[in-house]
Amino acid sequence: MGMPERIRRLVIKEFLAIFRDPASRMVVIVPPLMQLLIFSFGATLEVRNAGLGLYNEDAGLLGRELAAQFRSIPVTFSRIVPCESFADVRQALDTQRVLAVVHIPQDFTRSLRAGRAPTVQILLDGRQSNAAAVAQGYCSRIVRDFALTALARRAIAGKPTPRAIPVTRVWFNENLHPLWSSVPALLGILTNLVTLLVTGLSVARERELGTFDQLLVSPLRPGEILIGKAVPALVTAYAEGGLMILIAVTLFGLPFRGSLPLLAGALFVFLLAIVGVGLWISSISSTQQQALLGAFTYMVPAVLLSGFATPVENIHPAIRWLTDINPLRYMVAISRMVFLEDPSPEVVWPFVWPLLPIAAFTLLSSAWFFRHRLD
Amino acid sequence: MKPRGTHTAQPSGSRHIRPRCVLALARKESYQIVRDPSSLIIAFVLPPVLLFLFGWGISLDPTRIPLGLVVETPSAVTEAAAASLRGSRYFEVREAAHRAELEPLLVGGRIKGLVILSQQYPREREAGSAAVQVLVNGSEANTAELIVNYVENVLQKEMEHQAEARGLSRAGPPVAVEPRIWYNPNFESRAAILPGSIAVIMTLIGTILTALVVAREWERGTMEALLAGSISRAEFLLGKFLPYFALGLTAMMLVAGVSVGVFGVPFRGSWWVLIGVSAVFLTVALGLGLFISTATRNQFVATQAALIVGYLPSFILSGLVFEINSMPPPIRMLTYLLPPRYFVSALRTLFLAGNVWEVILQDTLILALFAVVLWTLTIRKTRLTLE
């Protein structure tokens, strides 16, 4: 039996090991695709449907007008909670019923008419620091705009403050759809997950069942065993990745502005690197629990430091170097670029080439572990 | 030992619980834990490491965001604005004379935004309000908006400052806005992220610890030995649960301690309440692992299931980073089914706001309900007979 034939048979055996069991077959295929549908809508930092408390102590006209302005932004603040006292304010914020409370002071109308500047307080729930920051921006803008309109129609006295007005143009994702950023990132994250699901356990399981020894006494060489274990994972994850790209473009309506061969090539090298990571984990673990531990030990930092949830630049300098060796970080960047930006080769290359040494390292070292942890 | 409230809900098939049996099983399980060091690593090394990753890796406070700046006609006025951007700790500014030089850098995110002070800027500024063009790379939709807001803030502050310095019209705006940030006065995203991340970490730890323990017994054939003795399902599960519960609770206190001691997150609630809520949550998290293990009876599938449910759902849908209120209604509904969601809310409140009973009791009761349902299902699924 020649080498190609031996490998072919082993690959078939490994495919069967994953897909023969209906439960395992289900687990590898269905949840990752479902997660794409769910997570892509979940990964948003926009503020919508939040609660807003209104504590208006001013009986005057201008106070009522300002309060009315806050009632007119139902997308951001869909629930308005009127507050009658500071006790109400505390209650509403403490119980997280509102994200912010706007407090209009008693002398609001009077001061404005007299040309003094009254102070409008915006009380924010710092437990949700990002949403609070966004809400603060919205609320201050409403107050400022209100003051400017009131000035313009000469309802109040005074001079306008100097203002910096940003005229924003967004490139690549013109309407700032959160979905457009999350789907390309999830393509990397979920194909990564599938690869780990298939490779992470393959050796540990055989070791625990005792069938690994049988493999070793067979004429197969370690390199061949490695290929046999790598191919099914690569094929499964690659096929699911293709399906995800299709879903992204058809179901989610994402643009695909870059080159498909480029994304296909990058995804392939990326998955090679992850196969290496999976086999690495698998071959140093002697039980499946250890393999599970290993898989999470890789997966958690890989996702946290990928730029999926928060920007890579914000990572603390002490661990920023980890992003340089994180294959997922490169894949997320490449995927977003190819979907949305149509980058030139010189722009993509710095994200593609690091995957090559990473893949080479993980694959070669897993082969080494294969040979040296045979006992 | 009286079991934690939730286990009393047993189906009629199981007999009552004998403490001696449970303890003997728990002791056996503890030996197994000590023998394989990976459980101890899971409980005592992994949680603090993950906490550091969350604390240092996840931040919404912009720092050193690469930003391009083009000043079309430099003058003293534009220089002041440029200096304010350069001096800000949010940005790392890269300047050029023409926008054509910097625009290509937006592709690939080598700069995340480009600020253009046009020829009209000095004149408009003199007149009161000045338009500033901001181009942003929308591939990271969430950051894009953040960048625009921060650019606006920095430039706005600089203008007000300057107007005040020149004694211009006692620059006070017609209405002053005074933001007050409760619970987190420094407005640090880390103070909000760390307590919440404990929920994700404990979900992970709970799942890894128990996802395989029952399946392992079946696969190794040791289940049969256990069956030879006459133990009830509840006794069996409780014997499995208690050692990991002790391990999990210790790990929980360890990460809470590190958050406060090392990262300086305030803790305004009571530690006893924290222990109580954590105990209920761990009953859920470990129960989830036991359920997976019992339902699959197969380590391979159990491990795969644990990998899928243990991390990403709790990270993305618990409200830790992403806004639950902004998700589309069907997804929002789904988050109600995720226990970490309630633990995130309880932890944030305990750490930053204190013992707010309305929040904490509600979250704890819902978690207890999860525990009852999960344990009832697990006990039902446990088979103590051989086919």
Give an overview in words.
The complex is a heterodimer of chains A (375) and B (387). Helices cover 65% and strands 9% of the residues of chain A. Chain A contains 16 helices and 5 strands. In chain A, strands 2-1-3-4 form a 4-stranded mixed beta sheet, with helices on both faces. In chain A, helix 3 (61-71) links the parallel strand 1 and strand 2. Chain A is elongated, with a radius of gyration of 28 Å. Chain B has helices at residues 19-35, 37-57, 76-87, 99-106, 121-127, 141-165, 189-210, 213-220, 222-228, 233-261, 271-296, 299-310, 312-317, 329-335, 339-353, 357-381; strands spanning 65-71, 91-96, 113-117, 129-137, 176-182. Chain B has 387 residues and is of the alpha/beta class. Helices cover 64% and strands 9% of the residues of chain B. A 4-stranded mixed beta sheet of chain B has the order 2-1-3-4, with helices on both faces. Chain B folds into 2 domains: 5-58 and 188-381, no CATH class; 65-170, abc type-2 transporter like domain (abc type-2 transporter like fold), CATH 3.40.1710. Chain B contains 16 helices and 5 strands.
